[in-house]
């Protein structure tokens, strides 16, 4: 979802289109409904440590995992506690005994963990399901890697911006995935080969999700306008900035489409805000502390798609 995507520092000149969009990445598998591979993680033994209120699983390939009683009861996968079709909990917090004990626990013939709770409610967990949710640092790390959450590349002026073909992204799933992975890793991708006419950013966004409406409309034209309600709508130079700090949910990704290149000037400049923040933290920790803690007022007022007057309080570096 959009929360994976990077806040964006950019600089744009006239004759560019831009829009905010939430990316919806459909992963090849989801956490709850992963197809069960051949049981590669079988259990040797399982027992309840009543004193610590932990269940211990000993794995066939060595190593143990510990699961808190309360966490297991809270995550019961039975049809009374979990709505399968939604992969969502049905169990009410009010019905959860956070001090629960465990009556019995055993490994079943088909290699699942079967638990009977004091009120005789029964929970059954797959070995794979438990293994995946092991609380150890190593298992958490593996989960992060599976979700590609560690893949980040911080860059400077030596960056060679990843390039992909616009038409290929529109028509080929492999190209679209490569584009999205590059976008998440680097934060910026240059798509080439889009027709030089309006409507292309919407085509691209709809390929993977939906446009997010703002008070500037679904999409908007960045051009020199009289009575401009945004400095981007003037012919002057813009300095580096972050867009939409006044919004409560800043855009995860922006698309800008150059339809008509200016005869003179019009260069786009971008900066990796993560790289800058990391550098600042190293070189001036005091400044970094200030910028990550002090909340600043942002406002945006005017008329466009609708009348608007927004106000937010945000840190310069989130
Ligand atoms: Zn249940």
UniProtKB/TrEMBL annotation:
Stored InterPro entries: AlphaKG_dependent_hydroxylases, GBBH-like_N, GBBH-like_N_sf, TauD-like_sf, TauD/TfdA-like
Molecular functions per Gene Ontology: gamma-butyrobetaine dioxygenase activity; metal ion binding
Source domain of life: Eukaryota
Pathway assignment: Amine and polyamine biosynthesis; carnitine biosynthesis
Cofactor: Fe(2+); L-ascorbate
Pfam families referenced in this protein's UniProt entry, alphabetically: GBBH-like_N (PF06155), TauD (PF02668)
GO biological process entries: carnitine biosynthetic process
Keywords for the protein's UniProt record, in alphabetical order: Carnitine biosynthesis, Dioxygenase, Iron, Metal-binding, Oxidoreductase
Residues annotated as domain TauD/TfdA-like: 163-302
An example Gene Ontology CC term for this record: mitochondrion
Limits of the Gamma-butyrobetaine hydroxylase-like N-terminal domain: 49-130
SUPFAM superfamilies: Clavaminate synthase-like
Family the UniProt entry places it in: Belongs to the gamma-BBH/TMLD family.
Protein name per its UniProtKB record: Butyrobetaine (gamma), 2-oxoglutarate dioxygenase (gamma-butyrobetaine hydroxylase) 1
Species, as recorded: Xiphophorus couchianus (Monterrey platyfish)
